[in-house]
């Protein structure tokens, strides 16, 4: 049972990756360049410094480069990305959710001044 519980976050992540790919393929009205004020990330888990400035960058980073694949803020950020991609949420909400997920994961967030 413990092994199954450990696999659940990975299974959910794979399902979300598949869903994101399907949305990107099938939606002609997807906001592919939904930009927001840049967020800098610095983490040993990421292995580098990254600048995230769009919904797609946030989604890709969360699903492919994130050091942990569970946590309430992580899943809220992924959901926010999906909602923004289909046009139900403004990019600034994704940015806020992304920053909270980074803080939850212990990733240093570097804010860019307005």
UniProtKB/TrEMBL annotation:
The lineage of its organism: Bacteria, Pseudomonadati, Pseudomonadota, Alphaproteobacteria, Hyphomicrobiales. This is DUF982 domain-containing protein. Pfam families: DUF982. It comes from the Bacteria. It comes from Rhizobium binae. InterPro entries: DUF982 (IPR010385).
